Structure formats: C-alpha cells, structure tokens
Amino acid sequence: MLRLIPVLTGLVGLVLSCVACAQQSAPAVPTAPIKRTTLQKFDVPRSNYETVTAVAEIIPDVNAGRHTHPAVETGYVLEGEITLLVDGKSPVTFKPGDSYQVAPMVVHDGR
Q1: What pLDDT was estimated at residue 73?
Q2: CATH annotation of 34-110
Q3: Residue 16, by phi and psi: left (phi above 0), alpha (psi -120 to 50) or beta?
Q4: Strand residues in the chain grouped as ranges (E)
Q5: How far from chain centre, in Å, is Cα 49?
Q6: How many CB atoms lie within 10 A of CB 101?
Q7: Model's pTM, two decimal places?
Q8: Cβ-Cβ contacts under 8 Å for 81 (sequence gap 6 or more)
Q9: How high does pLDDT run on average in the chain?
C-alpha cells in the first residue's frame, strides 16, 4: 500500500499537468473573420486575366460577402463546410473533398 501512494500521486500530477497543457494549447481566436493566403499567381496566356490559387479560412457563421469575378471561380473544401449562396439558386453546402464552380460575373457569397 505504501508503494501505491507515490504512484497515485504521480498519476494525479501527470493528469493535472496534461489538463494544464491542453488548456494552454487551445487555438487562439483569429482576429479577422477571413484569412486569405495566396499560394500562387500567374497570367492566363493570350488574355488580360490572371489565375490566383489561394487558401481562404473563414470563421464559422461569417459570410465572405456578396461579390463577382470576371472569370470562373473554382473552389475545393479542405475542412469544415461552406454554404455557397449564388443569386437565383438555392444554397448548396459543400463538405471536405467537394469542389464547386461559379460562372463569371454571377453574384455569390460563401458562409
């Protein structure tokens, strides 16, 4: 029984330190609702357009904002979900592994 007390004390200490570590490593709340990271840009041959490949991180329940693009927008969901709101169409929710396209000059939003 005397050998069991140090073992239990050590286990309690380990559990408490793990709880403290878990609380310290909680992700910080982002300051901006949308974080865009450009991966690459390049000109589209024989046109006035450029292609932009980027990662957009959107906080839950935040809209990207209604907007258009002069060319096709395409997207791929890495994690979480996005609901695509395209004018004149019903909202569509995409999950990880899904991709989508939005036609040029069509007003759309993402949440």
Answers
A1: 94
A2: 2.60.120.10
A3: alpha
A4: 34-43, 50-58, 73-76, 82-86, 92-94, 99-102, 108-110
A5: 26
A6: 9
A7: 0.66
A8: 93, 94, 95
A9: 81
